[in-house]
Amino acid sequence: MDQQNALEEIAMIKKVIEESREFTFNIGKNIILWGLLMSAAIFASYRAIAAGNPGVSLWIWVIAIGTGWIISIVWSIRGRSINWNLGVKIISNVWTSCGIAMTILGFAGITSGAIQEWAIAPVIATIMGTAFAGTAFAHKLGWVMYLGVAWWLGALLMFLVKSYQTLPIFGIMMILFMVVPGIVFQIQWKKRLLSSEIK
Amino acid sequence: MTDFDYKQFDDTLQSRIRVAIMAVLVSIEEPDFNFLKDRVKTTDGNLSVHLRKLEDAGYISVKKKFSGRKPQTKYKITDKGKHALIEHVNALEKLIKK
Fold it and tell me: What ipTM, to 2 d.p.?
C-alpha cells in the first residue's frame, strides 16, 4: 500500500461512516419536519378562515399532513433494517400513535362535526404534551418533560379562548415547542456524531 | 528507504470491502444482511465470504433470528473489531504522514 492508497482508504472509511450515520436515530429531523409543516398549515389555515374561506383550510391540512406522513414513512422504511434499541422503539411508537390519533381527530373529528373547528388546536396540543412526556421518559431528558407541560398549559389556554383565534397561539406554540426543540435535538445528534472515536 | 513498518496493517483488513463492512458496523447498531449489502454495494456471495472472514477473526458477531417466519441475520462489531479498525486507521494515518 502506498500513500495515495492510504489516503483513498481513509476517505472511503470516512464516507461510509458518514453515510451510515445518516441512518442512526435522529428524532430532531422528524420533529422539525412536522413542526414546520404544521406551523405553515396553521398560519395558512388562519388566513383562509379570516378571509372567509374555511373550506380551503381542510385542503391545507390534507396537503400538510399527507406530505408529513409520506416523508416520515419513507424515512422509516430506510431505517427498517436496523435493530433499534428499546428507547428508540418506545419513542417511535409514541410519536406514531400520537400522529395517528391527531390525524383521526383532525379529519374525522372535524368533518363528522364531533369536534368544533376551534377546539382542534387545544385537543391536538393535549396529545402533543403526551408525546413529549413519553419522549422525555424514553430519552431520560428532563427538559423535554417541560415541553410536555408547556403543551398542556397551552391547551388549557386555548380551551379558554374558544374561537379560531386559538390558531395563531397554536402556530406560535408549534414553532417554540416543536421546531426549536427539534433544532436542539438535531444539534445534539450532530455533536454526538462528531464526538465519536473514528471521524 | 522508509522506516514505515507495513506489518502494522492487519491482514484481515487488507480488503477494502471488509474495511467498508467494519465502517458500517462501527456506525450502526446491528444492521441486517440486506442493509450491509446496500451500503457496501456488493453481491450476496461476496458479502457472505467477507462477513465469514470477519467473524472468524472475531471482529464481528452474528445473530440469527426470525422476524415472523422470515429468517433474519444481524451483525454487530465486537470490541476486538472496533480496536482493530481504530488501529488500522492509525496505521493508515502513519503511512500518510511518513
Answer: 0.85
